[in-house]
TrEMBL record:
Naturally occurring in which organism (per UniProt): Candida tenuis (strain ATCC 10573 / BCRC 21748 / CBS 615 / JCM 9827 / NBRC 10315 / NRRL Y-1498 / VKM Y-70)
Protein role: Catalyzes the phosphorylation of riboflavin (vitamin B2) to form flavin mononucleotide (FMN) coenzyme.
One GO biological process term: FMN biosynthetic process
PANTHER family given in the database record: RIBOFLAVIN KINASE (PTHR22749:SF6), RIBOFLAVIN KINASE/FMN ADENYLYLTRANSFERASE (PTHR22749)
InterPro entries: Riboflavin_kinase, Riboflavin_kinase_bac/euk, Riboflavin_kinase_dom_sf
EC number in record: 2.7.1.26
Similarity comment: Belongs to the flavokinase family.
Pathway in which the depicted protein is active: Cofactor biosynthesis; FMN biosynthesis; FMN from riboflavin (ATP route): step 1/1
Riboflavin kinase domain ranges (all copies): 12-165
Record flagged with keyword rRNA processing: no
GO terms assigned for molecular function: ATP binding; riboflavin kinase activity
Key words, A-Z: ATP-binding, Flavoprotein, FMN, Kinase, Nucleotide-binding, Transferase
Protein name: Riboflavin kinase
Length: 177
């Protein structure tokens, strides 16, 4: 069992930002069954140590034409800019965010991947995402199996949901509306 998350917000949190969802590696949904929204590493996120963080997020559709972009693996990805998001899917949801190098996949560049804790009906590449990073769960780890990685991600989600129920964290939900 992991140590409980601190129930008091302290520096450098909260980190509240808005960014565009970009191409990732396509592993979150297809390999892990845990879809992620990749975002550019801002200077505030880059200052954080590699690890798993938690908070709230909200998707914002962007009025843009449908685009198709090529991922680094050559796979084509449809950027619908969130045009298919339902009203419910633009609400504020809890999230966990991985910031780091994903050693299981041997990444050489620091990335930020947001797992919004909600089941979406369609992709939303190119939409905007507003997020509030409120705290830290654990350091980035390497894994010997994909199953162990998935198990830890699910533990991260449980810990984030428990922490976000507290009034200390829950008060930040309205700051990203």
């Amino acid at each position: 069992m992991r140590d409980p998350i601190k129930t008091k917000i302290s520096e450098p949190y909260p980190i509240i930002e808005e960014s565009e969802i970009i191409n990732g590696f396509g592993r979150g949904s297809s390999e892990l069954g845990i879809p992620t929204a990749n975002i550019p590493i801002s200077s505030n996120l880059n200052k954080l140590d590699p690890g798993i963080y938690f908070g709230f997020s909200k998707l914002i559709p962007v009025s843009k034409d449908l685009e198709t972009k090529k991922r680094s693996d050559g796979h084509l990805v449809e950027f619908n800019h969130g045009a298919n998001l339902s009203g419910e899917e633009t609400c504020v949801f809890p999230m966990v965010m991985s910031i780091g190098y994903n050693p299981f996949y041997n990444n050489t560049e620091k990335t930020a991947e947001v797992h919004i804790i909600h089941k979406f009906q369609d992709n939303f590449y190119g939409a905007k995402i507003k997020h509030a990073v409120l705290g830290y769960i654990r350091p980035e780890l390497n894994y010997t199996t994909k199953e162990a990685l998935i198990e830890d991600i699910n533990l991260d989600i449980e810990m984030a949901l428990r922490a976000l129920e507290s009034s200390e964290y829950n008060q930040y939900k309205h700051k990203i509306l």
